[in-house]
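Standup notes
- DV: blocked on the single-chain target, sequence here:
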Amino acid sequence: MSRPFRELTDRVGILRPLRIRDFRLLWTGMFVSMAGDGVYFVAIAWQVTTLSGRPSALALVGLAWTLPQVVFSLLGGVMADRFDRRRIMIAGDLLRLGALATIGALSISGRIELGHIYPLVAVYGVGQAIFQPSFTSIVPTIVPADVLVEANSLGQFVRPISLTVVGPAVGGLVIGLAGVGWAFAIDAGSFAFSALMILLMRARGVGERDAERSSMFDELVDGIRYVRRHRWLLIAMFAATISLLCTWGPWEALVPILIRQDLDGSAADLAAVFIAGGVGSVLAAILFGQRSRLPRRPVVILYGSWAFAMFMTAGFGVIDSIWQGMIVAFLAESGITILVIVWLTLVQRLVPGHLLGRVMSLDWMISTAGVPISFAIVGPVAEAIGVRSTLIWAGILGGLVTISFLFVPGARDPERDGTLRAAERARMFAEPSTAAG
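- DV (later): unblocked, structure below
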């Protein structure tokens, strides 16, 4: 590693994890694949609204994408704690590559129909369900505890740059110049690159337990029991279920409709709204990454930033220009970024490593259980009361529900029962290990 790079990582806390070779490879691949996902979000919205302008059409695509993630996430978590996490992530990348390449080919040939899109985005969702638990649980195995906050902050720095800045910008440009099918093709290629980067990693990321000690079902039950014993985990997961039920479908299905139909926007305008949200995420991640530690009351910060982001959904219901939508997206994504950094760091620090994959998959399954329902109901609701009214009520209800869970007994246990302080003390006495590897 060059001296200028090491000096830069000494000064900028959020860059410290990049000294570690496997982390650099992991996040190089993730940057490219998430940029491809940013292309996808613009492309799928444009493709579906071109085939059908009804809100229910885009909502059904969202349902087909998220339902497999709920169904298969537990399997992905057990696999993450039992097998080589690196190979599982590669398998998830290849599934998504195949699905998106097929959508791209159909679109380029002019034969794409809504009936093709539903099953293919379902395969895409299966790939994501397999990939995500292994990705989240491999990070603490390649990054030492003394830079875990910085690693999660860097993740939330890279994620919005790729997902909501670079990706949408490329997507809008490619759709305008070459057509939507080529945007899907570029997204497919991004997953090939991600799989290659993961293949080059040295760490295998196998769960700490011997895979032959118990059955996969027994290991799944162990993970469920752990979450049940730790109420703060279960409360946050169910809070996410209700919160995302209120807001995810309206955000994903109605904002593109609002931009395209109400505001007469282009694909570039839709991309601009996504990009503004990405800028908010980047700034929030930089500020948090310089801290190198959690705030004094992390659970309060978690729920506060979370509720703020949900309330911002209502802002889309009152905008009358693209620049106003950009401000709303900027504020919303800033809050979501703070939420994700705090949540991931708490879970990675307090949950034993051999259970982390299962806990993260339970988090994904429970948290997103309301998302397919959200997509299922948002179309009929929007057609009944209007796109703007649906966004306003979704934001109000989502924010109120989220903040109310902070006051459920047990929600703030890590702040109050000493477990977080004990974990912080253990981290302080642990030998730092930020070598390049």
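- Follow-up: The CA atoms of residues 254 and 387 lie 6 Å apart.
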